[in-house]
Amino acid sequence: MNNRRTVLACIDGSAFSDAVADYAGWIARRVDAPVTLLHNIEHGHSADSNLSGNLTPGEREELLEELTELESRRSKILIEQGRRMLDSAYQRLLDSGVTKPALLQRHGSLVDSLIEMEEEIRVLVVGVRGESHGREASVLGTQLEPVIRAMHRPVLVVNRDFQRIPERLMIAYDGSEAASKGLDMLTLSPLYRGMECHLVHVGENSSRDQDILAEGVAILKQAGLEVTGSNLTGDVEEALLQYQQSHNIDLIVMGAFGHSRLREILFGSRTLSILSNARIPLLLLR
Fold first, then answer.
1. Measuring CA to CA, which residue among 96, 99, 143, 100 is closest to residue 124?
2. Residue range of the domain that includes 86
3. 3, pLDDT greater than 80
4. 171 strand-pairing partners
């Protein structure tokens, strides 16, 4: 990998792989970072499975050899398929103006691979589901939640094609220490420069809620960002998604919030629910 932290894009041949590459390229160009394309091959079942039964020692040995050969052939096919996926994404990034993306193919658990590379990652870009799910609406990939929980880097979850360069982002804010740190991350990154920022707080619209929102708006404005602040009421998930739709938001940004209703989004069932129902990418700040 490059010496600078990289935008790491997970390519798996799913319906979202092109979009993952496109969003990774957009981030890389905005923040002037290198891109690494990763294709990870999960381990299959071991060839030395239980061969007990009515087989003679010679039959067991022959069957084991056949299983080993099949596993070897399968591995070669997966490696070649992965290389073709990486080559396709590589060319796509070159065409978009990204300079020489790095290509990486690893074996084993995806979560383990990402944890090992975490210090080299600036932003992780993943699809909302893998190739086995196709484009089934409201279905999350089995790897997504473990990846989000394991990583301590921003994770962009891609759930649609790259239709246009994001211009409007919505930031969910609850005034906690962790949320304030998330805003600090935003103010320090060139990714959000020139974008229209909508800072939203979900509560009862009390004087305290208004103070929390004003505090967040002030932090962003002081950093030179264009900000619209809004206090929302009602169910957190419904309020956020309704606001996103009514204001034509291109990107939702959420962080690891403190002990509030918004915290449930990242650490409870609401995380999976909003990932399932949002129709635009979500950037999770960790």
1. 143
2. 6-44+78-158
3. no
4. 199, 253
Phi, psi of 224 (to 5 degrees): 90, 15
Does the predicted TM-score (pTM) go above 0.70? yes
Q: Indicate left, alpha or beta for 105 from its phi (over 0: left) and psi (-120 to 50: alpha).
A: beta
85 in Cβ contact with 17 (< 8 Å)? yes
Four-point Cα dihedral 214, 215, 221, 222, nearest 10: 150
Total count of residues recorded for the chain = 286
Phi and psi at residue 110, to the nearest 5°: -60, -45
Residue 169 sits at the vertex; the CA angle it makes with 168 and 172, to the nearest 5 degrees, is 150
Q: Residue 262: which CATH number? A: 3.40.50.620
Three state DSSP letters for 185-201 = HHHHCHHHCCCEEEEEE
Residue bearing the bigger pLDDT, 237 or 274 = 237
